[in-house]
Amino acid sequence: MTVRVRFAPSPTGMFHVGGARSALQNWIFAKQQGGVFVLRIEDTDAARNRPEWTEGILSALDWIGIARGSYEGPYFQSSYAGEHRAAAQRLYEGGRAYYCDCTREDVQARTGPQQRGYDGFCRDRGLEPGEGRALRFRTPDEGETVVVDLVRGEPTFENKLIEDFVIARGDGSPVFLLANVVDDMSMGITHVIRAEEHLPNTPKQQLLWDALGVKPPVWAHVPVVVNEKRQKLSKRRDKVALEAYRDEGYLADAMRNYLMLLGWAPSGDREIVPWSVIEEEFRLDEVNPSPAFFDEKKLRAFNGDYIRALPVADFVEACRPWLTGTGTIVPPPWQPDEFDPAAFAAVAPLAQTRIAVLSEIVPNVDFLFLADPLIDEAAWAKAMKEGAADLLDAAIVAFEALESWDAESLKATLEAVGAERGLKLGKAQAPVRVAVTGRTVGLPLFESLEVLGRDRTLTRLRAARVRLV
Ligand code: GLU
């Protein structure tokens, strides 16, 4: 039997990091089993779906290595409405479902507000289909439903506690629970790997598989992803969109490595491992069922490690979208013709060790490409204290006299200028740095001045000096 898994997102918002984690787990499992990964877009909630969310899912999957063309699909759930209706009809005709005209108020009037679920009032009334009548599944009165779950063992549900749930609404449209089962069935899905949130649906869905006469899949409910307060990650409160991480400059390799650590760890005391090792070592039955903490700080540090491990040429290439402002990435503050690739290449190795996400490249190098530096006023106030004017005057004279404009000579020169004033190098650097780059922190100063060049450095020092008059 060929293993067939599916990833079945609903295109109702940005692509959630928890979804990306489930997608990767499905992807790896399929690969390990020589199986097939199916992508199914569950777009039946017409009010909440938008085509751009579907496109966002496809491109985000592509980004983390689940490339278009390398999986089956995408299929769209909305194309199979006929099959969903036919399955509902079959269940009705086989006596496994019945029509019900109770309103919520009717049910509550009979059972009291405390009781949850449907009381079975219409079970044996033999109602015909009709406008406003929902179709309910007749759950067995006895026995139990055992869910075989690779992550959770065998969660067992008593059938008598499962209400007669609705499978088609009053307007005849099948609900998600049924559509999801019918699609999995017709797509030959053998393993359903999805988030824990769906576990409560599972006994109901398994009853539907049984009633439709098909052997249910093996399930794997992977842990919910939570924030530092142990709250389920929410798109209103937390940064959950994979696209947001991508646009901020997380590397796809770092991201997918980190996502796979949510609830699982590779062998040994390692966390940063090549993708090939994860593909080989990952086991669904090793996934920890407890909630997995999505630690943004750790991810950031992780990404920094990945950035530092890149060959410089790859780092230069990886920065390009932030230097040019491609696609959905915020454009840099300089004009395209102000960008100088050679100057960037010269400082890239210095920047590579200092940034944790690629978007941070921009404030580190903008001084090289803007006609005038972007002055941070707080930094200016801090650096341009008493003595700054005198120091700048002396630095200008000394720099003008330099024969060779290189980092080493610049450093020795400013060191001497500072020493004459009883200032350590760090103190002497501050006004120069702010005058030239606009900031108090950044790339190593003297290398920066070397790349910026004599004329532009001196122009900026003089401009700062004028401002101090
Ligand atoms: N469309 C469902 C969701 O996005 C997935 C259901 C499933 O994986 O079975 O939550």
What features would you describe in this structure?
- It is a single chain.
- The protein has helices at 17-32, 51-63, 81-93, 104-111, 176-186, 202-211, 242-248, 252-260, 275-281, 296-308, 312-324, 341-352, 361-369, 377-383, 388-400, 407-420, 425-437, 445-452, 454-467, and strands at 4-7, 36-41, 72-76, 97-100, 134-137, 144-146, 156-158, 166-168, 191-195, 218-222, 225-226, 292-293.
- The chain has a 3-stranded parallel β-sheet with strand order 1-2-3. Strands 4-5-8 form a 3-stranded antiparallel β-sheet.
- The mean pLDDT is 96.
- The chain is mainly alpha-helical and 469 residues long.
- Among the domains are: 83-168, Glutamyl-tRNA Synthetase, domain 3 (Alpha-Beta Complex), CATH 3.90.800; 310-369; 377-467, Arc Repressor Mutant, subunit A (Orthogonal Bundle).
- The chain is elongated, with a radius of gyration of 31 Å.
- The longest helix has 16 residues, at 17-32.
- Strand 9 (191-195), helix 6 and strand 10 (218-222) form a beta-alpha-beta unit.
- Bound molecules: glutamic acid.
- Glutamic acid binds next to strand 9.
- A motif ('KMSKS' region) lies at residues 232-236.
